[in-house]
Amino acid sequence: MATFEHFYKSLSPNSQVRGKEFEKLVKWFLQTDPRWNNLVKKVWLWDEHPQRDEWGPDCGIDLVFEDLIGNNWAVQAKCFDSHNSIRKEHMDSFIAESSDSRFQKRLLVTSTDNIGPNVERLLSRHKVVKILLEDLVNADLEYPEDPINFKNAKRKDPPKPYPHQEEAIKDVLKRLRDEDKGQVLMACGTGKTLTALWIKERLKAENVLVLLPSLSLLSQTLKEWNKAAKDKFKWICVCSDKSVAKEDKSNDNWISNTSDIGVPVTSSTEDIKKFLSEKGSKIIFSTYQSSSLIVDVHNDENIPPFEIVFADEAHRCAGKVSKTFSFVLDEKKIRANKRLFFTATPIILSNQIKKQASVNDIEIASMDDISKFGNIFHQLKFSDAINRVPPLLTDYQVVIVGVDDPLIQQQIINRNLLTSDEENIYDAERLAASISVIKSIKDYNLKRIISFHNKVKSAEKFSSDIEKIYQLIPTNEKPSWSVNSDYVSGSMNTNKRNTKLKRLKNLKSDETRILSNARCLSEGVDVPTLDGIAFIDPKSSQIDIIQAVGRAIRKSEEKKIGTIIIPVYLGDTENLEEEILASKFNNVWKIILALKSQDDSLMETIDRLRIQIGRGSGTSRGGDGLEKIVIVPEKISNKFSKSIKTLLVKNTSENWYERYGELLKFFETSQEFSPEKNTPLMRWVNWQRHLYKENRLSKERINKLNEIDKWVWNEIDAYWENMYRKLIEFKKKYGHARPPQRKTALGSWIQTQRARYKRNQIHKEQIEKLNQISDWSWDPFRDDWFNKFEELKLFIKENGHARPPQRKSVLGTWCNKQRSLYKKGKLPQEYIQLLESLRSWTWDPNESDWEDSFIKVENFIDKYGHMKIHETNKELVSWVDKQRRSFKDGTLSKIREDKLSKLVGWVWDPLEKIWDEKFAEFKIFVSENGHANIPQSHPTLGSWVGRLRNRYKKGTLEIEKIKILESYDQWEWNILDAKWEENYEKLLLFIKKHQRLPPQSESEGKWANKQRQRYRKNVLEEKRIQKLNNIELWVWEFNIKEDKSTNS
């Protein structure tokens, strides 16, 4: 199996012959490479092209190919030594020759990565796609042995799913039968990219969208999918430099320009539509940042929905909603039958964050929102991947190296680097970071390391510092082999980056190499197998931490464990306060928390140790399950009392587990059924029960509490016995079992027992216990009834009647309740007899009240001669309204109805009387004016018709009145229609009077001109056009000059 390097060495030493041989290879490459093979339809050497005679000799174009959507490509093949650079003069003839209508696209294929900045700008300006040495070397091909023998040259066999990928595929396919969206959570390095492809193939989906967060991942995914695809598919990449330019430059992406992808891209919606109209299997690979182009395309309803959308690194769609990253969550903007969200690090927002976002009107997305992301179809955490047999990932260890000032002085042998050497002044923190990494290299025999920094400048500075500091450390304190370092960033050219990665890959036997970066090596880059990584600067993003860790734990035969180095500069440990010293480990806690979110075994260990702290046993030095976290030194200083491991556990676990440990200790050492009230532990216990009742306590925590023998979710039984003992003690002390029921715990408890007794909810043995108390009563309300009866007798004696106030009166409320029970037949006969024995008691007090009010109305009529009672007499107005309502509801007795009907001026429906009066006036208006178009300005009818129209609009006007009004000519329910009719009538009157159309200076003329304008705008209703056309003198074009002459 030949490599590209092998083939290149076989080329002729003659430059002209070598060039022709390379052109043959380029033709074979375009026909064979998985990506280009899926793009190229036909390819010719220049001399083979059917139009060769018409086009003339080769003037810079070496090959021509036609792609699957009909574009012609001009191709230049440059066979250069890998150390040589392509200059502008090498490309000028190709650019000039291909700049006509024969060609729509350009491609440069070269055997070097060295492209000068001037050439880079030229290629970018003319949108030339590049295939460089890097692409040729890394292509999934078995190259020919030499330029003559292409027989055994072929693409490499596509990979097949591993068992864990098959599990994921089956899980997803099963769920997709009934659900249209879901999540696939797989640890970094376990092959989620190809899992997505194989799901697509099993679904036989032919119209697919793949969304990715960076050009690096887009390029890698495109390559991986084409390499592994069982069936051919057409593809198109949607992205643009403009969309990439909007990204945060601090992201330091490996690929930051579309010209570096090595394949054609588009930002044209027309190209996308044309592509989607093609038949057969087709896939759009797009960055999220350019997904607005997909939205624009899907605004055309003729474009069908995607059969499935794959959203990779889907955690980018969560958190505070970013417009470009949220389009995929909107089913109206990007239409699809199915959606799958792939990530290793799902983002779940806390309830507190969700609530705060809602208060501040901030749109957020959380991956536990199944309406947006669907359910989890499959999950593979990296702890599961590590523990599988065989393992999918390498296990890891975390090395936390604490460096204080004395250690720095010891390591650097009396050299005061903090103040000397003007060219290289090192601050203590930088020294500590370098010392930590060098110490770890020696202790753990690390060969390949990537260090992560917050900024590119920091990465560059660290790579420069560490080699110099290595030289200053005593021989016995550092590795016996050389330590070399470098840095890389996305802004470097391709050749420079690849050279640095090659050096990291191809180490000498006596060498360790460190490659520093900010973020460009986190995702989407094929990095050599590493022994470890180092977090030099603090990391706050769990996502960044997990992706970085993913680099250290990728499976390799060359290593057994991945090492994660975290330097901690401690400073002057003897003179700093303990709290300040502890704060220096904050970066460590963030990294451990990120690891814990992915490693179940680590999570279980830390949570178990937090429980031990609650029980008072603390953390032990060995055998505690934290063996994979190595802390150097174990104790900071004599002044620092707590062990670092204890700090680690407390800062990387929830306080819940410590309280749980305290509860365990309580039950182990106490006979009480629960902790003492108003203590922190009892408040915590009550809160767990509250959360449980509201179904807000996690299943894991419910199970943990159920493991405690004495734990009960319902504390009532134990509480009952405690309160019963208090009731016995109360009776002994006071001689009765009727403690105050208000504001006493015992009284409230007794009320609860009686209520439960009535509902048959009290245990039999509890009933028997209470019955043993001599003066216990299950019905205390009898006592209350007699107390109130005595109060009523006293009230009658003092007031001469049995009608206490009904509002804000306990006695009035009690009397009403007795009458209500009497009417329902629920009042005991004993109570009835007692109440009827009272001289002024009546079962219907309203009867006497009604007569009082009736007399008041009669007196009003006698005095004023009418029934128009002023609103200030609220009590009488309310009583009159109540009688009318009772009459309307059919609840007014016949006797009362007759009495009221005989009153002078009494009407049952005052609105009906108003209708009769106003309608009579309305008929007079119609008779006098010949129409029913009453203007709003009419003094007596304007507001009346306005109220009718309002009632009609609300649907409260009676049907018979609607029919009556609609029977009149020109009646309109719409006030605007009525106004139009009113103006129309004015116009008719003007024409009738003056025998001409009105000038624009008149109100009738202005109105007529407005109708002409609406007519010209084609917004005048047809019925109005017809009415205007019926006017004999009407014209739609009105001459302004004629208007002026008419006025003169």
TrEMBL record:
<feature type="domain" description="Helicase C-terminal">
    <location>
        <begin position="440"/>
        <end position="603"/>
    </location>
</feature>
<keyword id="KW-0347">Helicase</keyword>
<dbReference type="GO" id="GO:0003677">
    <property type="term" value="F:DNA binding"/>
</dbReference>
<dbReference type="Pfam" id="PF13156">
    <property type="entry name" value="Mrr_cat_2"/>
</dbReference>
<dbReference type="InterPro" id="IPR027417">
    <property type="entry name" value="P-loop_NTPase"/>
</dbReference>
<protein>
    <submittedName>
        <fullName>Putative helicase</fullName>
    </submittedName>
</protein>
<dbReference type="Pfam" id="PF00271">
    <property type="entry name" value="Helicase_C"/>
</dbReference>
<dbReference type="GO" id="GO:0016787">
    <property type="term" value="F:hydrolase activity"/>
</dbReference>
<keyword id="KW-0067">ATP-binding</keyword>
<dbReference type="GO" id="GO:0005524">
    <property type="term" value="F:ATP binding"/>
</dbReference>
<dbReference type="GO" id="GO:0004386">
    <property type="term" value="F:helicase activity"/>
</dbReference>
<dbReference type="InterPro" id="IPR006935">
    <property type="entry name" value="Helicase/UvrB_N"/>
</dbReference>
<dbReference type="InterPro" id="IPR001650">
    <property type="entry name" value="Helicase_C-like"/>
</dbReference>
<dbReference type="InterPro" id="IPR005114">
    <property type="entry name" value="Helicase_assoc"/>
</dbReference>
<dbReference type="InterPro" id="IPR011335">
    <property type="entry name" value="Restrct_endonuc-II-like"/>
</dbReference>
<keyword id="KW-0378">Hydrolase</keyword>
<dbReference type="Pfam" id="PF03457">
    <property type="entry name" value="HA"/>
</dbReference>
<dbReference type="Pfam" id="PF04851">
    <property type="entry name" value="ResIII"/>
</dbReference>
<keyword id="KW-0547">Nucleotide-binding</keyword>
<dbReference type="InterPro" id="IPR039442">
    <property type="entry name" value="Mrr-like_dom"/>
</dbReference>
<feature type="domain" description="Helicase ATP-binding">
    <location>
        <begin position="173"/>
        <end position="364"/>
    </location>
</feature>
<dbReference type="InterPro" id="IPR014001">
    <property type="entry name" value="Helicase_ATP-bd"/>
</dbReference>
